[in-house]
Amino acid sequence: MNDSVRTTTTISSTKSLVLRFQLSAILHLLLLSFTPIIMSVTAENHNQQMNRAESHSLRRGMLRKLGLEHVPVQTGPSIDVPQHMWDIYDDENDVDWVRHYYPKEIIEDNDGFILSYNLSLAARNAHNEEVHKAILKLRLRRNNKARRSGNFSIYFFEDDMNNDRFQIESRSVDNLTDWIDFDVTAAFSRRTDRISFFVELPEDVEIEETQSSSLSSLPYARARSAPLIVFSDLSEPSSVRRKRSAQTGNSERKNRKKGRKHHNNEAESNLCRRTDLYVDFDDLGWQDWIMAPKGYDAYQCQGSCPNPMPAHLNATNHAIIQSLLHSLKPDEVPPPCCVPTETSPLSILYMDVDKVIVIREYADMRVDSCGCR
Amino acid sequence: MTNWLHSTHRSDISFVFFQFSLSLSHFSFFQNVSLSACLTESAWGKQRIDTCAFSPLSFLNFSSSPLSFALLLLPQIILSANSKSHFVGQCSSQITSVFPLLMRFFLLILILVTRGIQSKGIYFVEERDGKTYTQPLTDQQSTKKVGEQIRELFNIDINPSEPPVKTNSHVSSYMKTLYKQLETYEHGETHEEDEVNAWLSADRIVSHMAQEVSHRFDDGSYRIRFAKEHVPSKEGQSILRAQLRVHIQGIVSPIFFYIEDTNQAGDTVLVSSEDPTVVSDVTTMVDRWSHLQLSTLPIITARASTENELKIEAFLVIALKDEEAGPPKRRSRRAAAASPISSSPMRQKTKRSESAYFEKPDANALCQRKGLYVDFDTLGWKQWVIAPEGFSAFYCAGACSAPFHKTMNATSHAIVQSTIHLVRPNTTSPAKCAPSHLTSMKILFVDQKKNVQIKRYRDMVVDECGCH
Fold it and tell me: I want to staple B410 with a disulfide (CB 3.0 to 4.6 A). Which of B12, B147, B399, B467 is the partner?
């Protein structure tokens, strides 16, 4: 009897349990139906935040690659990049680093001008540079149209402290309608943050006030007629850089051929190879510091590195072993990666602090060929 | 099942390692399996053994044959133990004499216990808190398979199923010295000397023992004859250096030694020597033989300024370079860090290996170099490959995501690509973690024709990883 009572109580309690469970289940279901929405909203937010943080850190990473701590802050009126810098930028010649300075100060003297340039830059990794050419460009105006020629001399001040000046060049110039270039490389025998030149001019000649389309650049009217352009090499040996002039054409052709081969064979189409990838700097939000190019063909390496490795994937011995081990233990050893094996540099033109225009070549920007590593 | 017996390690227990004599391994029922053994100190009476060592052992799978029991109990057992007092030699003799029965009993127990213990072969190596942890990557069967494939890749002329041929001791000891020398140069400073560079940049260094050295002719000369196949062909390779090394027995006073090409008069190398080893550069001679591959016999005439009959042994050492291969890669600053190529991490004293403590790969870990060791012994190469015992190949693993830490060596292209991936995920993938710098490795081995060779393999060892 006792037993039966106990059984019924257990049953009733079980019933109430079931009821309670059902109620809570409904409540839960109700709640659950909302949570995905709430979660998706927060996840989206979170993702966006993550993306922003990541894109910010990538931007910083790229700036650091360019040797900059942050995007150079521009003060004063905006000015255009002069044509002669575009010419240098477009020139195929291999130049590591070109800087274009406007004078910080122009002081009129009895028989000429003192031009002072501030050479300090936002770029940090400038210690290994070697100046191989420096040009002082002048645009001059002759007040007395009757005279046809005169003697021009350029001196530089060894030291800011005393007024010892050394003549670098002296010559007579007839035609003043165009830019006059003076080679002032000799002044760069030692590293300095500031350099001053004395330009000795015939009595009736003075620095032209360059006309500009934008009124805001008025304070630069005279400065724009006396830029200093410094060409330097970075002493760091970069095998990649040397490759550009000699090999880019070849590897391009080679790759195109390779690409065609892959298209012919569909089974091979997923193997490691170079594919197109266009980089639009506007798209990446980098247009505020990169003035040129607007974008470029970076290419990319995509595809698999299977085991056994086909010969044309130019795998290293190590990659072959790794691919072998990956086939044995796919979870523990990663497969070799399809990565760039040859790259070429890209010249970037940007505006540094103090309106210094910089053209600099950056290694590893463009993929020439891919392989399994 | 744990693969390491010594995971029962306690500080009061000493480890002892047994190694069977090699002669046993010729029986078909032996397999190459590594074994580690532990015995308490008290079992050895007064012998004090402090350190445990372990290394591969020819392991007997005796279940198939009772004969193996008998063989096992034969006193063909070498016991070696690494101890602080370096008594390895005495240890084996003393212990066998004092405890012959006891030892065999323990051995039997050991074999029973360790049946099924697998070889090391290839294993992960992880350094944490100053300790090294290892975990085998492959089991015995796959080790064998991998061994075959790696041998194929190495393309070396050996047959592990056969016992190695005996080589001349002068040749093998010289090649060992050369190998060691090159290893130290490789990881040291760059050398300006042409001589060193020639040997360093070689892809293959072969040694050939002279086939025959004649008795003394009346004019005091000896003919040193090499085989035609000793002359390297010019196809796909170039001869960087060739050296003739002559060992002379019976020198009483300093002698002059002339070496000339028997087929080409006037090309004499004069070496003055009181040293029993005469070394001369014969690069031009071997180069000429190589040009006239079929028409000349590679015979060198050696003339000694003494009336005595000398006993001469001679061999050629030739440094060859593959033609397609580019210039030797710039040695990295970090090459020194990657130097334990030849030393097995298992042999270092402070190191312990416990598979239970090996950390599972972390999915969030950043791109970095990870330890991976390939042990040649357990690939069945022990008797053919003289050095190294194995090599640390390393591998690169980890995520390449922003922010790129300095150690991640991200290229500009990698940063650009990662940014594009963020903005337009469909157009590209994130950057990938791969070796950014690899170094070569050399192996010293005996080929099937008894020639001792040093062969260099490019891009074998990961020196640095990076995001590409």
Answer: B467
